[in-house]
Amino acid sequence: MDDFYAAVDIFAKPHFAKPAREEAQWFTKVYTQKGFPGLLRSCWGAYVAFLDDSCGGRLEVLCSPLGNLPCYKLLTPWGAIFGSDPDILVSMGHLVPAVDFQMVDAQLRFRTLRSPRTALRYLEELPGGCAWQLGDPETVTDIWSPWTFTATPRQLSQPPVQALAEVVRYCVETWANQLGKLLLSLSGGLDSSVVAACLKGTRSDVNTVNLHDGTPASDERVYAHAVMNKCLGSVLTDLQYDMEAVDINISSARMLPRPCGSALAQGVNGARHRLATELNCPAIFTGFGGDGVFCYLTSASPIVDRIRSDGLTAGLSETLTDICTMTGCTVIEGLIHAGLKVLSPNRRRYYSPDLSFLTTDRRTQLAVVPHHPWIEAPRGQLPGKIAHVGMIAEMLNGLDSFARDEALVDIAPLMSQPVVELCLAIPTWMWCRGGVDRIMIRESFQEALPAEIISRTWKGGPDGLAGALFERNREGLSLLFRNSLLVSHGIIDEKSVLARLEDSMPVRAGENLRLLELADAECWARHWSDRGTLSPSAAGKAAAGI
Description:
By secondary structure, the protein is of the alpha/beta class. It is built from 23 helices and 13 strands. Strands 1-2-3-7-8 form a 5-stranded antiparallel β-sheet. Strands 11-10-9-12-13 form a 5-stranded parallel β-sheet, sandwiched between helices.
């Protein structure tokens, strides 16, 4: 007999009704009748599902797409061990951490790619939407893919603007109603404002915070207060990013099996995590991922998509005008860029490497590219949709980048599976209609949000914090890189890094962010290398404070 288990948060999709008091039985019935593909068509959330057929000796494991619950796999002589926290696997004596410096190098070159092969040896990740089956050999099958929803425009049962409003509201409300209390990080930008509008009327006690670095460029409080006044009516806490809490000798990704953090994250997350703890909020909601999900493209790709979908119609002229209005380019420039895309071979991969401050050998060899099931588009995909999927894929590393030792979880409701599926089915040229980026989501919430939020097309950010952190820690960064594990393994180019750090001229924004990322990666490598010097039993005692 098959036993079906699902861990953490799993919900029915809007068009699938389920008995309110028979949730576990309903999900089991869905799986029994339709298998994992049926489960993914009917359900969503953050979960890992296990099918255990003790009679047939079969074990299957499915990780939810786009959820914030990772599923790591460790094969041992006596079986497979699954978990969501590498540190627990170490503490229990199952994993002796050893840094895979080849994958560290790959991660630093391709920052946004998330590979099933982690940067800790022997520890692999089951990608979201994939199912693993025990056997000889073991198999991993892609069951859910974003390309399913980009292949052909879906026939929606209602206008896209209405469908989008309903699906986004449903997902935000579903997440919120699981909690008695939450903290919303309200930046004043469009995406977090949409989340705020959806939280109105939920059962959860909603607290809000706005973060800034004290400079006019990052001060979004006037917009955040406007949203609060219209949508929630509660008190908005104003906080500055906490530079004092940033320790460049500690990795913000030390709880993860890959170096995908930045010292900047300590300043951004530290203040709001402390506030959430003070307010006894178990979760922080953000607008994370909205730009990607809502197809914020500023290239000529939508023009090419329209040509290939509709041909030389009047709609093509409209899309050309829209792109020129949105980007500020001339019609001639728009045509040239579109023409180059039409004439060039269709690029089926969405990523490109960042080689800054890496060694020459690594730049020329590019030996390892992190693999991911979404990494290569099927033939015939439109360039705009390849870029759309790429933007969403680039957000995956941010979904679960919170410390498991905190009784706190970060939730990005705009990255929920039903929202992503619907947005991928909407043609790229519809998202820039009228020359306004993300116009579909703006129109979906134009009645629910203040006019100044709907109409604004720019937003501040923590750039000032990045610059201040860098200048404040120049000396410490220099010391860190002079005694670097990543330098000794031929990954970071010590000469170029130190030359930039010792140059008294201000560092460009992109460079200071990159150096803060590399510093975080260095600390990540030291953290796991130090853990690896302990025996499994000693690691467990150290983690338990014994």
